[in-house]
Design a protein that fits this description.
The chain contains 8 helices and 29 strands. The chain is α+β, with helices and mostly antiparallel strands. The chain folds into 4 domains: 101 residues, no CATH class; 118 residues, no CATH class; 114 residues, no CATH class; 101 residues, no CATH class. Keywords: Coiled coil.
Amino acid sequence: MDVRLPLTSAGMCLVLLMSGCSPSDAKHPVSLEEKTAQFEKSLDAIQDPKLKDAVAELGGSLLLLERAQLKLESKPVETEYDEDVLAVLKHYPTPQDLVDTYINGLFVLHKDSSSDYLTDLQPVFPFNFNSPAAFVFPHGVEWQSVTLSNKRVIPFQPEWSETDPGIQLSPSSSNLTNPDDLTVTYPFIDGLDVENKNQPQPVSLQGKVEVIAPRRLYSFDLTKKDVGQTRTNDNLSVTLLKLESNYAEIEFSNSAPLAAELNDTTLNPLIVQARDSTGQFLSRSGSINETAAQIAFYQKQLANMQQQKTWTETFEKQLNEEQRAFEQQQKQHYSKVYFNGPIETLDVSVLDFSAATVTRKNLNLPVRRFDRHTTAKSIQPLTLPVVVYDDQAPTWLQGATLGEEQLKKSVSISQSVDDPSAARIEFDHPRSFNDELLGTALNVGKSPVTFFTEDADGKRDGPIELPPQAYQVDPPRGTITYDLNLFPETPAYAVGSFPLFMATVDKKTIDARQLPKGLKIKGNALVVDSKLFPAQDWRFFARDGSGHYLKEILSVSHDAGAEGPAIFAVHYFYGQPTQLETYQRTDLVTVQYGFEVKLDKADLAR
């Protein structure tokens, strides 16, 4: 949840909602729901459609910001870790090398769809996009067209049209979390059975990409003792205004003017990361990026808009000029960043855009097909001219040495009594590499649990005699489900032993030139004999000469037939493996987790 007020010329910026208040109102704070209702009522009084739209957009943004502030401030502080978003920079000599890797490592996958009339295209980027700062430089990809096997070119359109009778290329409706995924839609002809495979297939995807590399990036390491201090490096300055348990307030500036070619570009030059006492990076829960002065300015503009009867070009020009003048006065930039956990140290990095390299490239990418399962006997090449490392692998692989006590300590217990007929106790723990090797053949065994009443002092009292169908223990899902309608007495406690599962893992490191029978390196691919190294028991990680783990692009299982066994698997990497790490599950251990849970009260009237 990052709420930034883009200072655009249109004047449609996020601001805090300020409804007109009388002095007596100050004694009774207005809730967000009341403000929303008041604002919607005030909109009804506006007759001019253009003015109404402008105020509605501004007011909606207002409420969004206030809602975000309330949510961030009231969110419980629960520790959650994330990756170092700047780790990728450490592997490339210059910012431009990182840009070239990003562009040259991009390719497109042809994906099967559940419909005979759809073909999904998935652009695969060499870097992850699971957070706003996952790729640290400003970038954009614009898709333009797809070329089909019959040489026909289908232009991109921003949304699928129900009335267009032809083949269409539009954003995917099956993957709304990735705006770059696309769908080729073939026309549905009523009464005619036309299968997708009989239609002309996508051969290449056209588009253009732009990436902006800054002159440099500089990082400031800050702690509580730096509050109120300004740290400077050449033209970059950072001031730590406040550092509380789970948030920090920061001002930053660049005394050098912005590079001329970036004057019309929206930039976010600040990257703020935090570590707790363990030294691990905390995940961000969101940020608010407006100062009190900025909010006051937007409040003033909003009040001015609400006083108008009509929207005119003269008024719009006035708003734009006021905003431009205000922006020129803003030498400092502000950010209030919230984290999921207690902050020990801050890493504040600033991208210096006083000079920049803008890389633009036209894309004409072949559409490749790599199904997760195939009956093909030959190995399809997937060689890309880039090297990308997996910086999460070392942390992920710590799960290979997971111990019983460590597993028990990581368990968290939660409850749900919303449905009295299916009340639940849930046993959860952070997923690790060890979980990946558990497989499905879990020896569940018996999992005893006893429900108890409570005495007058709220302490545990006698056990409750129950029919077998009153509760169900599901170790693979980590739940105990119970039906309160079948309880003769109201339960207050649940006591028992819940089974957890842990793999015993054997690790070996092998030189790529001395691989055992059943393992073979072909270029950037590892070929695995599935009979000697079954997938349920084995995992493989590759390093190159630098000693870093190579990122795996994808893997393919080559099977004997539709229902037949796997013959061999192929793992493709961004780079040339020179060393292999093998992880074998040698045993499966059941760990008994003893518990006593005070049960939440359910609303039996429901």
